[in-house]
Structure formats: structure tokens, C-alpha cells
Amino acid sequence: MKKVLVILLAMAMLFSLAACGGKTETAAEKPASSGASGAASSGGSQPASSGSSEAKTESGGAESAKAPKELGYYDPDFDYTQYPRYKVAFLSMTAGETWDVYDVAYAHWCEKMNIEYTHIWAPTQYSAEEFLSGMQTFIDQDYDGLILEASQTIPRAADILNKAGVQWVCGLSVPRDDSGTMLHPAIGFDNYDVGVKIVDRLAQWKEETWPDVPWEKVGLLCLDFSWNMEIHQRVQGMEDRWAELHPEFGASNPDPAVNPKNLFIGDIATATNPDQTAAQNLTTQQLSNPGDIEVWLVATPADLYSQGAANAAALMNMTDKVCTACHGGSMLPGSWDRGVDDSWRYALYAPQGLAGEMVVSQLWAYMSGLATPDTIYPEWVKKDDHGGDDHSYPFVMMPLNFLEKDTYKEYLEWTDLYTYGPGEKGVWDYEPVTDINLYPSRSEVPDSYK
User: Fold this and answer.
1) CATH at residue 42
2) Beta strands in 236-321, from DSSP E residues, in sequence order
3) Residues of the chain with pLDDT under 50
4) Same domain, yes or no, for 287 and 359?
5) Which domain holds residue 80?
6) Can you list the pairs that 126-132 forms with residues at least 24 positions away whose Cβ atoms lie under 8 Å?
7) Which tens digit of pLDDT belongs to each residue from 81-95?
8) pLDDT for residue 65
9) Which residue in 426, 362, 437 sits closest to 399, CA to CA?
10) In this structure, are 164 and 211 located in the same domain?
């Protein structure tokens, strides 16, 4: 039977997909924003509207001399000052180090594209109503575009922004309505495949570290957040992959009451704002009742969950017999830099610099009038998930790479090389790399899209 572990949190806590392990701007370098009015008023001169640009063309862009080579990506040879200096702000439903890191990335790419950028604003009480009220303030102050991080309020926000004629994009959030239909282009990941890859890496660790322990004595604990479709898809991938690797444990089953043997799910969807402590409690509860399990693999959707799982293992003196891996990883390099050596060993990482390029470039294309949400990234339009028959919204997959203790410094320095350029100071303070082709900067379009 499926063992579903649930903990009800006594207070609402911040839900963050990850926490920053890299260097961010200091308070002196980044202007503070305590409210929408203060943040919005920090902008400078009022830009002309995108519709008045003399450089605006009617074509898709790549063939035009007055457009970047590829809409949706930064073009270092294009003169962005041909267009008005658009005014853009980043609005997030929650604060936290994760969003501070993305804030730095957005600011960097905005500067490259001649965009006036207002740093992150978030409601003080993580309230949807406060978020939408603050968003209206930015609309009233004639912002040309907004970057949103607000998955639960996207349907309402989209309706307001579309009626106001303000261009917008999502950061990590996938813009869907309550039925799951896409409302706008998305930049993200194949969440199911994320789950598969995490289980594969955990299984590899077990074989490398405990080859003599039979799989009958190995348990897989998956931490879920089931009301979030994107995260739940990762757990579905984890369960299916476990069943594929070990058919002797039984088949995967969509029935939530049935699971393959030795697979356990901790679901904290009933908590208002799950946090690291919730993950730690769930892990402790399961590891305290191990049955015949000797080695534990803990698959999680975000940094805070894996950190909580690692804390639980450490307090129970089980670090050597536990391995946790997550999707995220911003927090992990800083932990390793401080000499921490616990059971959080891997993270499937999407670099903020690469994501920031596409988020800002996409928004610039909309504000300039060179592209629309239905024409951007045409190669990334899924045949069965594009916003309904009347739309062709793309879902662009980002390249992902596992952060591992032996190689993370090289990979992170490569992300700085891509984002900031040769010889430029980036976010990370490791030995620089010079080979721009060391890792892929884009994902290949999968066959399932064609």
C-alpha cells in the first residue's frame, strides 16, 4: 500500500523552490523595494510606448536588419538602443534568496538589452490580493513589461495584464489556468524527465557506494507537493522509473493507494507553505520506521526539501546510509564551499543566467512588437500542449546539469562565461574556464514536440 506521510504546519511558512548558494548583490548595490509604489517610482524617465518605435518591423525579426538574429535570445551584435528604453519590473509572490539570484540575472540581461529594470518586489504577507494590488500599481505607473513569479495567481494576473495591454512573462512559473491549459509561453523543464533523472542518479550512487546491499533493503522516499502539477509530475516520473528499474517490486500505478515495493511518498500539500522543517519531519518519520530498509534514497523537488532530508539523516546518525538529490541546487555550492559533507549529494541544476536570457529576451521581443506569445520560439510549440486550438504557445526546455561535488565549480564558472563573457567578473568565485562549448547552452527539441 502507498504510505503517504502528511504533516500539518502550525504556521504559514515561505515556500521557495531553492535558496541561493552563489554571490548576490549587496544592499548597497541593489535598491530595496518595500512596496509597489516605492519600487515603481524608482524608475527614471518615461519611455515611449513600444508601438511608437520607428525601428519596429512587421516581420518575425531574423530577416530584418533592425531585429536580433533570433528573437527570444540575446544578440551581442544587435543595437538595442534603436528601440525605446522599455521599463520592466520583477514581481514575485514570495521573497527569498532564490528569487534574489534570479533578480540579479534579470538585471544583468536588462542592462544588455537597454531596459530600465526595477528590482524584485514581493508582497509583505505573501498574499495574492496584495500581489495583484501591487501589480496594478506598476500598471498605473506605465511599465511596459512585467516578469512574474506567481503560479497561484497567474490566471487572474494574466487577465488583468492582457486587458491593460501590458506585456508579461513568467520566470520559473508555468502559466496555466485551473484546467492546466497554457496561458502564455513558458520556459522550464520536462518535469517528468526531471524525476526520472533524479532517480537514476540516486540509483547510481547506491551502486557505487553500497554495491553489496541488495535492492530489497533499499528504500526510495519521494517528497511531493501534489497540488502543484509541475512538482507532482516529477514524482510521477520518480515512481515510474523506480518500477522500470525494479520490475520485481511491482508496476507503477496511477492509483495513489498503490505503489511499487520499497517506494514511499511524503506529501506536504496540506501545508500552507511547506519549508525545510516540514521536509525534515517527513523524512524523520519515515526513517524512524525503516522495516527492512538499510539504505535510503530521498528524491525531492527543491533545495529546501533535500536540506531538510539531510538534516534528518544527520540527526539520526544515518548520513552514510542516506543520499538525497533534488531539482534546483542554488543552495548546494555554498554548502560545499563551507565544507559541509552531508547526505545532500546532487542537484539537477538550471543556471539562472541562461534562464534570465530567455525570460528577458522574450519580454523584449513582445515590447518591441517583433514577436507575440503565439509567434515566439515556433520550434518549441508542443502538438498537444500549446494553449488550445486558438494559440501556439511554446514550452521551451532549459538545459539541465547535475551539480556534483567533484565538478560543480567548473560548471558554474562556465555559466558565468556564457552569461558575462570572457574575462568578465560573474557570480561565482572559482577558477575561470575559457571553453564556451564545454556544456550545451540550449536543449534540443525532443521528438515528442514534432
Assistant:
1) 3.40.50.2300
2) 263-267, 295-300
3) 1-64
4) no
5) 36-189+352-398
6) 126/12, 126/14, 126/93, 126/94, 126/273, 128/93, 128/152, 128/153, 128/156, 131/91, 131/93, 131/157, 132/156, 132/157, 132/160
7) 999 999 999 999 888
8) 53
9) 437
10) no
